[in-house]
Structure prediction request, 211 residues.
Amino acid sequence: MIDNYRHIIWDWNGTLLDDMSLNLAIVNDMLRDRGLAPLTVERYREVFTFPIRDYYENIGFDFSRESYEQLSLRFVATYRSRWHEIKLFPQARRILEQIQASGKTQSVLSAHQHDTLSEFVGTFSINNFFQHLIGLENTYAHSKVDQGRGLLAMLPHPEFEVVLVGDTLHDAEVAEAMGVNCVLVGHGHQSKERLQQCGVPVVDALSALLD
Ligand SMILES: [Mg+2]
Prediction:
């Protein structure tokens, strides 16, 4: 599935990093604090989207009564205090090793704030797999399109040699805006059924990428 490409751009959250449960736990605590109904896993995977602000509004947060920026900062601080609870997906390290051994190169393009991303990837001791770690300039998670285009400009490859692997419809949008192909993995923040609506290949698990 990724055999024909020379560079793989990885999304981080929900693609290599299995952090859906922590995201759900934090957002449910914030909902309960406001007297709002918590989400089930299924509901979360149906409503999670980018920009994050839209997803928050859809599940009941009212930004005429509180600041999105404050809520976003609180989420990031809580996430950071609990990130020791999160693991990579079981096959992630082996896949990264196999891709590297095949002579392909790899990068990460994440909606995390850039410095946080570098620190976080470092805690798993996998930095050596990646040529570039690209995050956003702030914590508000609006869009990865500009950073994706910037990353592509740094790579010594034409678009057709690059593939983006992600877990959300936004990853497919980013890939399209960059002019590169995309593969989505249905084990993250959005349901496989939802991902299949956008017309790019969807696999169940990382291991299927090497088939
Ligand atoms: Mg993701």
Notes: The chain has a mean pLDDT of 95.
